[in-house]
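Justification of resources, computational component.

The compute hours requested in this renewal are based largely on the per-chain cost of generating structure records like the one below. Each record pairs the submitted sequence with a full structure-token output. That output is archived, and it is also reused by downstream analysis tasks.
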Amino acid sequence: MTNDQSVSGRGAFKKILIANRGAIAARIVRACRELGMPSVVVYTSVDAMAPYVANADEAYPLTGLRPNDSYLDQDQLMSIAELSKADAVHPGYGFLSENATFAQRVIDAGMHFIGPAPAWLDRMGDKVNARRLMAQQGMPTFAGSDLITDVDSAREAAQRIGFPLVVKPSGGGGGMGMQVVAHMGDLETALAQAQAVADAAFANGGLYLERWIEKPRHIEYQILADEHGNAMHLFERECSVQRRHQKLIEESPAPGIDTAVLREQAQRGADICAQLGYNNLGTMETLYSDGDSGFLEMNTRIQVEHGVTEEVTGIDLVQQQILLSAGGSLPEQPPSMKGHAIEVRVYAEDAQSLMPSTGLLRTFSVPELFGVRVETGYQQGQEVSPYYDALLAKIIATGNTREQAIGRAVVALQAFTIEGVRTNAALLLRVLKAPDFLQGNIDTGMVERLLRQGARIPAL
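The structure output for this chain reads:
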């Protein structure tokens, strides 16, 4: 991966606090080291053995174990940032990465928030407002509603949109709270269920309705924008292989879709971001079905699956976040993608029930193979806690062709030895070897169909 542009304007940061954990914390530590910028990590007692804690320049313990008492504790994080004399904070993904209040606190304390301006976190964090804004700028959207104020307004919107439809939290993400509704008689119950999840998970009970698309493709576009009104795209990522509306396998380029259509959509997204004055990284997520595309949301942070774009473009996206936040300019636009990259997410979970699995990693042997990159925040002897996301590692396999990348991902999964917790490796292998996947016939319901096809997937 290359980053040929120099930092202009404010210059490099003196020290970066990483307000996160796991694979993304390890990834940011590496980017900081490659840029020659010291890094500071935070950790709870169960993360004390994480390899990035030793690899960072400084490490500070957090009190508490639960997210609200540790990685979501803004007061504690701000105190450590000030104590360590950090002049920038990188939020990673998840936790506080899209929290406008936290970003503003960082700025008010005289530090730099590595990400879009707080106004963009706020503006794009509400999906109803984001959909409206993008539609006004010419981005296609599927039929949907404004914020639902009561059951009567929901029924009126549902009659206009038609069934089936989906009830979605306006301030959430990751598919949490989504309720598919096939008939008007089920709408009121679905609203209550979605609101309960939204209140608990996001402290925001706002809901909206959207047309339900059967068997869509989930296509997203990577956007980079500087602080001088310029924006560019780094092509697309295919994210259709999901379970419970959460991504499992991602790849780039997207197979089986007209390249010209994808490039036009990506450029449209970049042009809109430039017109609006968006800054730093962002990902425009869309659904694609029968030639039609509809905007879903804008993620104002680095994505879990950023590595596939890095592998096919040669551009380090984490370094770009830091450089752009330091006043740097955009890198040179690659004319095309090189080869193919595919990422599989290895989770500590039962492959059949998809429930998390916790325990001590008695064995954690990461494969070292040509064309394979593994991102992880774990090592042997470390505990997998019930308090945080169950992601153990990301395997990113590359090749000259899609078939070669898939083959390397299969070999890497089979060579990855993990003992002490169950993993979803067998499910991942089943997907990678499925005829439909090999042929590129994929959609967001593929994993659920495989799970319904009878044979139990063995635990690994």
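The domain at 217-451 is CATH 3.30.470.20 (D-amino Acid Aminotransferase; Chain A, domain 1). Residues 2-10 have pLDDT under 50 and may be disordered.
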